[in-house]
Automatic annotation (TrEMBL), chain A:
The keyword Signal applies. Keywords: Signal. It comes from the Bacteria. This is Urea ABC transporter substrate-binding protein. SUPFAM superfamilies: Periplasmic binding protein-like I. CDD domains: PBP1_FmdD-like. InterPro entries: ABC_urea-bd_UrtA (IPR017777), Peripla_BP_I (IPR028082). Residues 1-23 form the signal peptide.
Automatic annotation (TrEMBL), chain B:
The chain crosses the membrane at residues 373-391, 420-438, 499-519, 551-571, 583-610, 622-639. It is found in: Cell membrane. The keyword Membrane applies. This is Branched-chain amino acid ABC transporter permease. It holds the Pfam family BPD_transp_2.
From TrEMBL, chain C:
Residues 391-410 are annotated as: Disordered. Keywords: Cell membrane, Membrane, Transmembrane, Transmembrane helix. It is a multi-pass membrane protein. It is found in: Cell membrane. The keyword Membrane applies. CDD domains: TM_PBP1_LivM_like. Its main location: membrane. It comes from Sinisalibacter aestuarii. The chain crosses the membrane at residues 73-90, 140-163, 170-188, 220-240, 267-287, 293-312, 319-336, 356-383. Pfam families: BPD_transp_2. This is Urea ABC transporter permease subunit UrtC. InterPro entries: ABC_transp_permease (IPR001851), ABC_transptr_urea_perm_UrtC (IPR017778), LivM-like (IPR043428).
């Protein structure tokens, strides 16, 4: 009853304000495509809750274009083909105006053909391997140049690391990131034999030999550093073995790209103090906006112990940018919103302003944090905003590619031959 | 002298601009203010002069400043940019202590202060700068810090102070460390060649990573190319012949081209660019553009262009050979002294043999450890599957339940040692109860239908998994081992194994003994064996088969629970924990030979050893090791279907 | 004895009629061909369900009729998907590459086209060269042959090894599970050349059919799936109705006795194992273009166990039971895990089906094995008035895979 009243009042108000809003179908539907069961549920359920919180906040502020927002939540159950099916369901059955969702790269690749076929709009909130730019996707997480490259620079310049161990879980994100890093390190004068690469399966627990291998790398007198793209649970065994071997961050520093506040809550961090992580957001960021966000999150979820993390900030920025873009466009029509998204600005929770580029990637600062004993991160380095790069400059095939949806109208434009390789994305 | 004068001048300037500051800066504050910008920026690349200035200031407070800075206790006051040591009073108030006077000069709000957070790189430089102060510090902990800093990064200047500090050292352990470090620094930095060679020979039998770290840079080489013969006076490691395995022809020629000693080869990319640049009315070099999709036609077109002098011609093999013959390729030591490099090479050769042997030993320990983990996971199954013949797909979930019991106990009892002591019997009790319940409710109806047992227990398995997900969430839960299990047993820098793995090994052996004791020496064991071989006859002898089956199954499940605590301590506690072990556990039992605990032991050892062996052959891909291990097992079972130790006679059943 | 195959098996006719009616109904209600009551995504779900029913029929042949509890048939299903997926990806990418290279000043050589395709396909997973397994990816014909040949060959080798050394019962089940695990771990590796964890994606975009909307394409695939199921069902019914069927049932109930009668037990088992693997491959090749992506997680051992569960719930030892089980369980699962089922509020606790469905499913396996070994198919016995043989409690055969008295028909 209350809902109808609010909707009615706001519709009338909106009709008075703008004609565009009158054409809007109320309520505006926001699809949430995050796994609520299966292996990815732990990470993605938090993002689903974040989206519900953001929608609730927006409705409290008076909704969008005179309409209330309605979140449509579906559960793709960590099953990659199901992501495609649920995305189709969201777009054709529920007719949502925008989708916020996905975590793993493979789930994004599964959804891409559907989103592109039906001209949907997806906001993808997780750091990923890059090498992609879809007309229908906005990437609010970090591309490799916004996380991996700055962290490697930090290793080279600040810690004086001369020999690198790239440890990763065997899937696409570590593979591509390590490829980029290998080529980047070589361009920085690190010899091929000074780069040790190892891949382990998901959930790997037997780390003794790999840790011993890493220690043995120090035998030629060069400072060793570990760049870890180890995913999820496997980190626990890895860090436990590291601690048992008595390796301190001063001897062999480890920088992780997939370990955040959420992952550390499953660990006793006292032995990990000083190891590093690189993200665009840390919960410990000392700004009023962040304090407000954390307070709102704790109130919404009803648990003071819950942490916030980087993908949550990505959704926060992405959602607010979408609201502003739809307001600017006067409609939630996908093409209109997409054009209004280019150049959208919104304040980061860590200070500064995020800007959406024409390649559908955000410009954000990169933060490097040292692990503290309480499971939080001490931010020791914060860069100027770095624009996300869809195609890395450090692989020969990708260096010639650019993405510019505004002027070139192409996400995979070859600057050498001056042609658009393909309009759809590669999946 | 000039520097001192400059500093004073700068301090006066600062004074002039900050006339309102409450007092004059002391000498250390002056030094710090002179480098205020780089100190605040706190980057390893630029911080050097600031640290040198403090360390070299000659002021007695330099050590205190560097130590406070390193410990992140140095703060900058925003109003005037002065640096202080700060002590926290409460959440937002800090007491400021002046470096020069050592007195507290007041309190300040956190908002008015900026903490200096030197990163690990800067902290390392600070540590190295502190070495000269700390080597003779009365506090042994500080002296140890100094040695740690020296081990991480040293330079030639620190060799003399280190030598001077050896004789006065009272602590025997520290003295030994100092002497060892002195040898290592001698190898790297001593100007006297004979002293270096002596040090190298002295350390030649040592396995330490630090020794190799000192020796290897001496034998580092770079590949250089010389026109004609290699000039004399250079410490040449070896001369390489192009076309050999160490230096393929292509690489060698690319080096020549890069050094500008020969024209580069024409690549396919060059050809395409050249062709595109010379399209003339739909033809290139007389070949129609449409035909250029044929590689042979492209070569023809390019050759035609080259003949016209428009593009550089292809390099012929003869030209390449001639160019290669005219040059020498040699690996050159960075270290100029041949005597030193020779000694280092000889020492390294001796060390590397020892390292190889020790690596094999370490791999053996790892394999043993992995085998004991598999054995521990499989021993409960050796009872339920091996002895009773019941396929229990929920065995992995019993392991998981044990691990979660450990987690819950640890939430209630914060002391880690006590909580483990409570958790082990409790985990046994919980899984024993679960096992008995499952046997009574489900399994006993299916004793002669093994395939159905498989399905039913699988149903229980997924239900239990999801139930624990609902209760504890999918996030991995911490299960922390007590401190006395935290470290590793280190034999030398190559061979080490963590205590928790040793504990698991011991636990596995204990269970083996327990199993043998129960089966061979107790009434339950006797009855179990009787019921397994012939339930009807056993019943006729007055044994209650139902009760025996129930207890045996409970025992197997209970042991799985204890294994769960151990596995949780060493890896992680998630609801999918059991999944990771179930297939391997069945493999272990089947490979070893069903119904024989020694077989299970051998099976676990075989699987662990095999997996480590394959990992060693292919160190960059652990996943492959698991794959090939399973394939090996499949093939193995084809040839020994009854496992390593097959039961013979009537006990073997069908 | 001279009655025709169909007359002896009236259930086949009934099944075909039901399937035909169902196909027509779905077509009429679909978005692509009719009223649009059923959404395209649901048409795809139904199409996929039919292929699952096909693999369930194969599973029933090998388990319900021959007593081999294979926990590896989903591996064959996945392999079929990979084989067709390779061609779909290659050809789709080739079109893109040829179009984009057409504008370059110099026409590309064949090698350059292949290289560019490689970069496109493997660039995503940090590589760019074609691994040898893709040697025939450019030929639809060869890949279609491989859809049956690869699973068939794997089943032949594995089955030959296993049956030759007389591995039976639960040992065989565990061994097949190990094979599945090894295959999925192998495919998880990037080095396997099949794009590791990412698998092959975008398979719903059929090359050369860009102009056909998914709403129509989904119905075409639905038809293909229905046809495949019909053919597979008739083939299976034909196999089990003749002398061959009698022999494999004999093997199930008492392997040793059949061997002593002079039959080559291994040969029969091997033939059946291989043929059902091929059927599974065909089902997979139809399933994954509808799902859109095939990756190693699909092959994980748990999928094959679910397959056994479908057959058990539907009723093993009867082909329509397998179909009912697969259709019923997979559709009900989709309903409950999709978040559409309303939560039940108990006041103190809210039962969310997304969380509790799996528990219910797990317990239902236990219930079915304990209390209803005939599964859902047993309900038809009540209807048709079939009776179980009365052998005063004695089982039909001593072998571990054999049917028990109360699940057999007279």
């Amino acid at each position: 009853m209350n809902f109808i009243k609010t909707a009615l009042v706001s519709t009338v108000a909106a009709a008075a304000m703008s004609t565009a809003a009158a054409a809007q179908d109320c309520p505006i539907k926001v699809g949430v495509l995050h796994s609520l069961s299966g292996t990815m549920a732990i990470s993605e359920t938090t993002l689903k809750d974040t989206m519900l919180m953001l929608v609730e906040q927006q409705n409290a502020k008076g909704g969008l274009l005179g309409c209330d927002l309605e979140a449509v939540v579906v559960d793709p159950a960590s099953d990659w083909p199901l992501f495609a099916e649920k995305a189709r369901e969201l777009l054709t059955v529920h007719e949502v105006d925008v989708i916020f969702g996905n975590w793993t790269s493979v789930s994004r690749k599964s959804v891409l053909p559907v989103i592109e076929e039906l001209n949907g709009l997806l906001f993808y909130p997780v750091q990923y391997e890059g090498e992609e730019s879809s007309k229908n996707v906005f990437y609010t997480g970090a591309a490799p140049n916004q996380q991996a490259i700055p962290a490697t620079d930090y290793f080279l310049d600040e810690l004086g690391v001369e020999k690198f161990a790239l440890l990763g879980t065997d899937y696409v994100y570590p593979r591509t990131t390590n490829n980029i890093l290998e080529s980047y390190l070589k361009s920085k004068g690190i010899a091929e034999e000074d780069i040790f690469v190892n891949y382990t399966p998901f959930g790997h627990s037997d780390w003794s030999k790999i840790v011993a291998d890493v220690v043995a790398l120090g035998a030629d007198g060069k400072k060793v550093g570990v760049i870890s793209t180890i995913n999820g649970d496997a980190n626990i065994g890895f860090y436990k073995e590291l601690a048992a071997a008595g390796i301190s961050a001063d001897d062999i520093p480890v920088v992780a790209f997939s370990v955040g506040e959420e992952e550390l809550s499953g660990l006793d961090t006292s032995n990990l103090v000083g190891h590093l992580a690189a993200w665009n957001y840390f919960m410990s960021a000392d700004t009023p906006a962040n304090a407000e966000f954390i307070a709102a999150w704790h109130e919404f979820i009803g648990d003071e112990a819950r942490v916030t993390n980087d993908p949550m900030e990505a959704h926060y920025i992405g959602f607010n940018m979408w609201v502003n873009a739809a307001t600017a466009a006067g409609s939630t029509d996908v093409d209109a919103v997409r054009e209004a998204m280019w150049g959208q600005e919104f304040p980061n929770l860590t200070g500064g302003t995020a800007v959406m580029g024409v390649n559908h990637h955000l410009s954000k600062p990169v933060l490097i944090g040292e692990i503290l004993a309480d499971g939080q991160f001490d931010i020791i380095s914060q860069t100027e905003p770095v624009p996300g790069d869809a195609w890395t400059d450090f692989l020969p095939e990708s260096a010639v590619l650019v993405s510019d949806w505004k002027d070139l109208g192409c996400g995979m434009y070859n600057t050498e031959t001056e042609t658009c390789v393909q309009i759809g994305s590669n999946y | 002298m000039l520097k001192r004068f400059f500093l004073v001048l700068l301090a006066m300037l600062l004074l002039a601009t900050q006339a309102f500051a409450q007092s004059e800066p002391g000498p250390m504050q002056t030094v710090l203010q002179a480098h205020a910008e780089v100190i605040a920026e706190s980057s390893r690349r630029t911080i050097g002069p600031a640290i040198d200035a403090v360390a070299g200031s000659g002021l007695p407070q330099a050590q205190a400043v560097l130590e406070a800075w390193q410990a992140k206790d140095m703060w900058q006051r925003q109003s005037d940019g002065w640096f202080f040591r700060a002590e926290q009073i409460d959440a937002s108030t800090y007491r400021l202590i002046d470096f020069d006077s050592g007195d507290a000069i007041g309190e300040a709000d956190k908002g008015d202060l900026t903490q200096l957070k030197p990163n690990a790189g800067v902290r390392g430089l600070l540590g190295t700068a502190l070495v000269q102060f700390q080597l003779l510090d009365p506090d042994p902990a500080r002296r140890a810090d100094a040695l740690t800093s020296l081990e991480r990064s040293a330079n030639a200047d620190l060799l003399a102070p280190l030598r001077a500090s050896i004789d006065p050292e009272a602590d025997a352990a520290l003295k030994a460390r100092k002497e060892r470090l002195e040898r290592l620094l001698t190898i790297s930095y001593d100007p006297d060649e004979a002293a270096r060679i002596a040090a190298i020979e002295e350390m030649a039998g040592d396995l330490g990573v630090d020794v190799r770290a000192a020796l290897n840079p001496l034998v580092a080489t770079t590949l250089r190319v010389y026109a004609g013969e290699v000039p004399g006076g250079i410490n040449v490691a070896r001369v390489l012949r192009p076309g050999s395995e160490a230096l393929p022809r292509d690489t060698a020629y690319a080096m020549l081209a890069e050094a500008g000693l020969a024209p580069p080869r024409v690549t396919e990319g060059d050809v395409r660019a050249a062709l595109a640049a010379h399209i003339d009315a739909g033809n290139v070099g007389g070949v129609p553009v449409a035909e250029l999709s044929d590689p042979a036609r492209r070569v023809g077109a390019y050759t035609a262009l080259a003949a016209g002098g428009l593009v550089p011609a292809y390099r012929t093999e003869a030209e390449i050979s001639a160019a290669l013959d005219a040059h020498r390729f040699a690996q050159i030591y960075a270290e100029p002294s041949p005597a030193v490099t020779g000694a280092a090479e000889a020492a390294l050769t001796r060390i590397s043999t020892k390292v190889g042997l020790n690596q094999a030993l370490d791999l053996g320990l790892d394999a043993l450890s992995l085998g004991s983990i598999y054995f521990l996971a499989a021993i409960g199954l050796a009872i339920t599957f091996g002895v009773m013949g019941v396929i229990n797909m929920a065995h992995g979930e019993f392991i998981m339940m044990g691990a979660y019991t450990g987690y819950v106990v640890q939430q209630l009892i914060p002391n880690h040692t006590a909580s483990i002591a409570v958790a082990i019997p409790l985990a046994f009790a919980v899984t024993f109860a679960a096992g008995v319940a499952m046997e009574r409710l489900v399994i006993r109806w299916l004793y002669n239908r093994p395939l159905e047992t498989l399905l039913a227990t699988f149903g229980i398995s997924i239900a239990l998994q999801q139930l624990f997900k609902n209760i504890f969430g999918t996030q991995a839960r911490p299960l922390t081992s007590p401190d006395w299990l935290g470290g590793a047993w280190v034999l030398n820098d190559v061979v080490s194994i963590s205590y928790i793995r040793i504990a698991i090994f011991v636990l596995a052996m204990l269970f083996l003994a327990l199993f043998l004791f129960i089966m061979k020496r107790t009434r339950l064991g006797l009855e179990t064996r009787a019921v397994t071989q012939n339930p009807g006859m056993a019943g006729a002898m007055g044994i209650n088969p139902g009760r025996v089956n129930m207890l045996t199954f409970g025992l197997g499940s209970g042991i799985a629970g204890i294994a769960g605590v151990a596995i949780g301590l060493f890896a992680k506690v998630t609801s999918e924990l059991g999944q990771d072990y179930i297939v391997q556990s069945f493999m272990t039992v089947v490979v070893g030979g069903v119904g024989n605990i020694w077989g299970t032991l051998l099976g676990a050892g075989l699987i662990g050893g095999l997996q480590k062996g394959i990992e060693w052959l292919n160190p960059s891909n652990t996943l492959a090791a698991q794959t090939y291990m399973i394939i090996f097992i499949i093939v193995f079972i084809q040839f020994r279907p009854r496992g390593i130790i097959a039961l013979k006679g009537r006990a073997a059943g069908d | 004895m001279n009655r025709t195959f169909l007359a002896r098996n009236p259930s086949v006719l009934i099944f075909l009629a039901v399937l035909a009616l169902f196909t027509i109904a779905v077509t009429v209600m679909s978005e692509g061909f009719g009223m649009g009551i059923i959404s395209t995504s649901f048409v795809k779900t139904l199409g996929k369900t039919l292929t699952l029913a096909l693999i369930a029929v194969a599973m029933d042949l090998v388990w319900g009729y021959a007593g081999i509890l294979s926990l590896g048939h989903f591996a064959f299903f996945g392999l079929g998907g990979y084989m067709i997926g390779m061609w779909l990806m290659y050809e789709r990418t080739r079109q893109i590459v040829v179009d984009s290279l057409a504008s370059s000043p110099i026409p590309p050589t064949d090698q350059e086209v292949v290289d560019a395709i490689g970069t496109q396909i493997f660039g995503v997973v940090g590589s760019s060269e074609f691994p040898p397994v893709w040697a025939f990816a450019d030929s639809l014909t060869i890949q279609l042959i491989l859809v049956v040949a690869v699973p068939g060959l794997l089943a032949l080798i594995f089955g030959w090894l296993a049956f030759r050394s007389r591995v039976t019962g639960v040992y065989l089940s565990i061994l097949t599970q190990a094979m599945t695990l090894a295959l999925s771990l192998y495919l998880f590796q990037n080095d396997s050349g099949l794009r590791g964890n990412n698998g092959l994606s975008g398979l719903q975009n059929i090359p050369h059919l860009d102009h056909v909307p998914q709403s129509v394409l989904s119905v075409w695939f639905f038809w293909a799936s229905a046809l495949a199921l019909a053919l597979g069902y008739v083939f299976a019914a034909w196999i089990v109705s003749g002398k061959f069927g009698s022999v494999i049932r004999g093997i199930r109930d008492n392997e040793a006795r059949v061997r002593f009668l002079g039959y080559s037990v291994e040969g029969y088992k091997l033939f059946l194992f291989t043929v059902t693997a091929m059927i599974a491959g065909i089902a997979g090749a139809l399933y994954y273009p509808q799902a859109g992506i095939v990756n190693p997680a699909e092959i994980a051992p748990i999928a094959s166990i679910y397959l056994a569960v479908w057959v058990a719930i539907g009723g093993r030892g009867r082909l329509y039971g397998a179909v009912i089980g697969a259709v019923f369980v997979s559709l009900v699962s989709t309903y409950f895990t999709g978040g559409q089922a309303p939560d039940i509020n108990l006041g103190f606790y809210t039962i969310s089906w997304v969380d509790w469905w799996t528990i219910l499913l797990g317990l239902s396996f236990v219930g079915v094995t304990l209390f209803a070994p005939k599964g859902i198919g047993g309900l038809f016995d009540l209807w048709t008035g079939r009776r179980t043989p009365d052998r005063h409690g004695a089982d039909l055969g001593p072998d571990m895979g054999s049917l028990r008295e109360k699940e057999a028909e007279e």
